[in-house]
Amino acid sequence: MNDFWQHCSNLLRQELTPQQYQTWIKPLAALAFDTEARVLCITAPNRFKLDWVKTQFSGRIADLARGFWQQPVEVQFMLAPKKPELRPNGNGNGVHPPLASAPPARADTEHGAPERSKLNALLTFENFVTGKANQLARAAALQVASNPGRSYNPLFLYGSVGLGKTHVIHAIGNHLKHEKPAARIRYIHAEQYVSDVVKAYQRKAFDAFKRYYHSLDLLLIDDIQFFSGKSRTQEEFFYAFEALVAHQAQLIITSDTYPKQISGIDDRLISRFDCGLTVAIEPPELEMRVAILMHKAHAVNIVLPEEVAFFIAKHLRSNIRELEGALRKVRAYSNFHGRQITIELTKEALKDLLTVQNRQISVENIQKTVADFYNIKVAEMYSKKRPANIAKARQIAMYLAKELTQKSLPEIGELFGGRDHTTVLHAVRKMMEKRGKDAQLNHELHVLEQTLKG
After folding, report:
1. Where are the stretches annotated Domain III, AAA+ region (predicted)?
2. Which of 93, 170, 305, 402 could be cross-linked to 123 through a Cys-Cys bond (beta carbons 3.0 to 4.6 Å apart)?
């Protein structure tokens, strides 16, 4: 039996992402195999993982068992025996210390002069939780941080609010500052840059303005969509852009949308954005959301049971800030009532938020939105037709249904004309694989996700 489980684990490790393997497969254990009844018993550490693995992986594990023993095998799942619980903290009442906000950007001083980089020293690559949603952005950011001005210039990161764009660009700045302490670095939000332009105009100080911004080694500008409609700001930024690129300084830019879709931005700026590398940061997948919650809880000494992290992550899917807000709310509710954090307490604490989330996105809404986007009829989603355009739209809708709803694979298949769950799984895996390679498909999916989330 141990030989089988090692064989099974190795194969699943190759088929899944590292985070999926660590989250779902590694915690499992093969408990027993009844050779006469041909029943394999596998244990999971908690109810949430048991239900999820049973839904998502039982078929694959049964196939591997059949191949290993050369006979049909029934796979049964059960909860592993509980270990003795440790007290949550020293006071023994399960109440946690306040969840502190991240401190503001540190204003270091050097030779008596205030640090002007405006970097938040707490936002680094080391504490940035990585998953499929942001791994390309992190890889590009590391490359730029190690070779500023030479790898990708500019590096343009885009994605919805609360997905970690600001964390990434601060991490780049902190990395370069550590490697080259003398480097001239400035992080600035686009609204502050607009304000600086206005002040320079009022004080007739454009020479000093240009001297400062044109002399930087690294300019990190956040939320550039705020330049929309501000022609003088765009003109000054264009000159800064040209000057910085000319002396091989690095520019990092973020926005909430794809560069060509930012309204009110001069075409010559848009064309400059396209000269470098444009990377999307997507909403985090389930395993990444769990990892983020556990990391945030650990950072502020909250004892967060893993099943509670899974519960929150499964129900809140849009962005990292939403997860942080939920964690704060659960902590406050736990402290107020003097109770340990459990799934029941979490349901009570997040009752209003969960109600809103649960009524936001349905499979039917996804089908209608995707059908409208690709100009096909909703009925064709359920049909047996297989032209390329319909098959693509159907697979995208299945993928979005898996990502944005709590429906299981069999439930999704039933809502697509009674298709088998393996068909849905194939569509999901295909879209995940193609999304990482096809920029146009990735953009289409991003637009659909934004539309569905309102």
Report:
1. 118-334
2. 170
Cβ atoms within 10 Å of 433's Cβ, excluding its own: 10
Q: Can you say which residues are annotated as belonging to the binding site for ATP?
A: 162, 164-166
Spell out the domains of the chain, with CATH numbers in brackets. Answer: 2-79 (3.30.300.180), 114-280 (3.40.50.300), 286-358 (1.10.8.60), 363-453 (1.10.1750.10)
For residue 38, give Cα distances in angstroms to 34, 66, 72, 276, 366: 5, 10, 7, 58, 41
List 113's β-bridge partners, or say none: 110
Tokens 């594990």 identify what position? 61
Pairwise CA distance, residues 57 & 348, whole Å: 31
The model's pLDDT over 36-47, given as tens digits with 9 standing for 90+, comes to 778 888 888 887
Whole-angstrom Cα Rg for the chain = 25
Q: Which residue, chain included where needed, has tokens 């394999």?
A: 40
User: Among residues 138, 117, 137, 124, which one has the least CA distance to residue 167?
Assistant: 124
Report how far residue 204's alpha carbon sits from residue 24's, in angstroms, rounded to the nearest whole number. 61
For residue 315, what are the contacts with CB-CB under 8 A and spacing of at least 6? 350, 354, 357, 358, 406
Residue-wise pLDDT for 321-343, tens only, equals 888 888 989 998 888 888 999 98
Annotated binding site: 162, 164-166
Residues 396 and 440: beta-carbon distance below 8 Å: no
Report pTM: 0.59
* % of the chain surpassing 90 pLDDT: 20
